[in-house]
Amino acid sequence: MAALSSFSPLAILSFVLVIAIIVSGAEARPRAFFVFGDSLVDNGNNNYLATTARADAPPYGIDYPPTHSPTGRFSNGYNIPDLISQELGAESTLPYLSPELRGNKLLVGANFASAGIGILNDTGIQFVNVIRMYRQLEYFKEHQNRVRALIGASQTKNLVNQALVLITVGGNDFVNNYFLVPNSARSRQYPLPQYVTYLISEYQKLLQRLYDLGARRVLVTGTGPLGCVPSELAQRGRNGQCAPELQRAAALFNPQLEQMLLQLNRKLGRDVFIAANTGKSHNDFISNPQQFGFKTSQVACCGQGPYNGLGLCTPLSNLCPNRGEYAFWDAFHPSEKANRLIVKEIMSGSEAYMNPMNLSTILALDAITA
Ligand SMILES: *[C@@H]1O[C@H](CO)[C@@H](O)[C@H](O)[C@H]1NC(C)=O
Ligand SMILES: *[C@@H]1O[C@H](CO)[C@@H](O)[C@H](O)[C@H]1NC(C)=O
What we know:
Shape: globular
Structural class: alpha/beta
Order of helices and strands: HHEHEHHEHHHEHHEHEEHEH
Bound molecules: 2-acetamido-2-deoxy-beta-D-glucopyranose
Strand content: 5-15%
């Protein structure tokens, strides 16, 4: 007692702090981050696959700070996962298929996303060799085996339980399936509302599987305003109006997705799944581009034809000089500037954007309970 009482309160406090830092030192790295889904979040997996769904030629990546060259991201610069990694204080996740993903890099997490895929296996069949959702989940399991070999079973379980997960999928189930061609097989099978119900039930199975594999904080984004992308304005829109059937699809899908996530949380007894209403933040700058500093939310920065919405973004396309003035980088994908606005809402948006809570709240909560 006598010895202890000779410590000043300040000394004890700094002693406790030092211990805390030593104890947490082994885990001082940012939480791991795992990404699943389609081209909106693909960091370059498709570059390793024989598929046409890839962003591996200039001017893709023209504003990507480290290299200013294409990486497979469907953006002029950073995409949504990159910007979330930055919020976590982490480096960007590597594509799962990258040979650089080994050793300690495995602990950063991984990006399993693949452009062209959907909730359903028959979505994006024209892209042939892409990593479909069930396969992305198998890779997640495989990844955990590799991490286990590195840090052991119990540390691996912690890493996965404490990780942040992002999943963005569903848009292609409309654009590259139901509405791909007139009288598609799926549109003959289901009227649109029943198709949406079917998608939601299949999506729920994928999310349950993600939970079973250890995910405990999962950001689930809805689809964007599918009918308002430059590609649809060019092909289906009338005088710059958004294509109504695709807008109807998004309007059916997003609220049902949110309800399904809340239901899953109730069943699991915890807030595992977070509905990120990215469609709403996207709509904000589509309905009022100037307010967000955009010159246009209709014309793509890179492309050709009406709204620069036809065909792919290639070295021969029209390229806008100032990417920051465009909400859309190519015919389908937001510009880095738009991605920043979306991630800002993910971080600190109100409940209309993030249900039941935003990412800064999650990070604060998990820091307390960790
Ligand atoms: C997709 O394919 C995999 C592998 O064949 C299968 O296990 C899975 O059930 C399929 N998913 C759907 C929704 O049909
Ligand atoms: C979202 O995040 C901000 C902090 O950036 C916080 O003040 C706000 O209350 C949060 N909103 C909700 C609904 O959690």
